[in-house]
Amino acid sequence: MRASVLLSRGPGDSEIVEAELDDPRPHEVIVRIEAVGVCHTDLVTRKALGERPAVLGHEGCGVVERSGTAVDTLGVGDRVVISFASCGSCEQCRARHPAYCDRATALNGSGRRPDGSPTIRVGGSPVFGAYFGQSSFATAALADARSCVPVGDVPPEVAAPLGCGFLTGAGAVLNVLRPGPGDRLLVVGAGAVGTAAVLTALSEGAEVVVAEPVAARRALAVRCGASAVASLDDPLAPVTHALDTTGRPEVPARALALLRPRGTLAVVGLGPATAAIDVRDLMLRGLQLRGCVEGDAEPTLHIPELMRRHAQGRLPLDELVTTYALDEFEQAVADQRSGRTLKPVLLPNRSES
Q1: In angstroms, rounded to a whole number, what is the distance separating the alpha carbons of residues 83 and 165?
Q2: CB 58 within 8 A of CB 98
Q3: In the prediction, which pLDDT does 13 show?
Q4: Which CATH architecture has domain 169-293?
Q5: Starting at the edge strand that comes first in sequence, how are the strands of the sheet with 20-21 ordered?
Q6: For the purposes of burial, counting CB atoms within 10 Å of the CB of 95, is it exposed (0-12), middle (13-18) or buried (19 or more)?
Q7: Which residue range or ranges hold the Enoyl reductase (ER) domain (predicted)?
Q8: 83 vs 14, higher pLDDT
Q9: Helix (H, G, I), strand (E, B) or coil at 5
Q10: Closest by alpha carbon to 39, among 248, 333, 328, 303?
Q11: C-beta of residue 139 within 8 angstroms of C-beta of residue 349
Q12: 259-267/239-244 β-pairing
């Protein structure tokens, strides 16, 4: 296969190389990747790995090409979205909260299988792979069959971000905040995660206001039916629910202050580990502060539901996506950071520039 090997030396630090993918074990499949989203978590991980060679990517969509001997839930030729890995047997997985799996770190962030074996080699040497149980910045990915969700005949570039980014935003609304008619949701940060949350809340009949500094993202939110301000410094009426996608340490306290009594704030952004909040105010006004990983979603249930909403026209996720070739990763990242692109999606089989 061809893979995008990432290093953290500065701009232009990805390279397309020939790589070797391990054979599938009994519970694994090889998926020929048609589309893969670029997520902020990929960039955070790239920085953390330094100059350790890595194949990242964790929003893959493609067609099953080979199956392990024990796989009976998928067939060769099935189009699937690959979501995060989970064990399926711990207490959280059994309760349908796989994002909080007891083995989440080993399965998603160790760079190898849980037994220590590598899944990807370049020039015969192992590199960091098995990222979120897939490493899909490549023309093919190896994944556990339980992480693969069949999606049928849908545009791969729309389905791919449901593996993480779109699922996180939509799931935070549907599974944690649950606003409906008569409620008012504040979304802080209208990137891909935030905008997916906006669309989902609107489809639930809630009023939505967005706080986002990038004018193009505010304009998109308004076209979708939300109202928008440039920052939390702008006048804002109280809200019943809030979602922080930014990871900025000052946002939780400011969002909590805007909540009506018994309101809920969910945080999904990766940022500093500590933030100051007024615990007395939290208690006296009956507020709730919730962490949320992967939208607290069960991918096998929620990805098909979101695809149904898209097919019905209730969730126009296609309006959020811009596509790039695999070798245009750095351009995709630059466009996302500038606000030119909301959700970049790589198409590994598109002709390289």
Answers
A1: 10
A2: no
A3: 72
A4: 3-Layer(aba) Sandwich (3.40)
A5: 20-21, 120-122, 125-126
A6: exposed
A7: 10-346
A8: 83
A9: strand
A10: 333
A11: yes
A12: parallel
The secondary structure of residue 254, as a DSSP letter, is: H
Neighbours of 270 (CB within 10 A): 13
Q: Is pLDDT above 50 for 353?
A: no
At 232, the amino acid letter reads L
The mean pLDDT of 151-179, rounded to a whole number, is 97
Query: Which two structure tokens, joined as six digits, stand for 309?
Result: 């909403």
Structural domain spans, the chain: 2-163+316-347, 169-293
Q: What are the pLDDT digits (tens) for 130-144?
A: 999 999 999 999 999
pLDDT > 50? residue 254 = yes
State the residue for tokens 């351009």: 331
**Is the dihedral angle over the CA atoms 159, 196, 137, 112 positive or is it negative?**
negative
Tokens of 290: 């919730």
The class (CATH top level) of 2-163+316-347 is alpha beta
Beta carbons of 188 and 268 less than 8 angstroms apart: no
Q: Which two tokens stand for residue 107?
A: 């399965």
Can you tell me the mean pLDDT for 86-103? 97
Question: Are 173 and 306 in contact, with CB atoms under 8 Å apart?
Answer: no
Tens digit of each residue's pLDDT (9 = 90 or more) over 37-56: 999 899 889 888 988 899 99
| CA-derived radius of gyration, the chain | 20
165 pairs with which residues across the strands? Answer: none
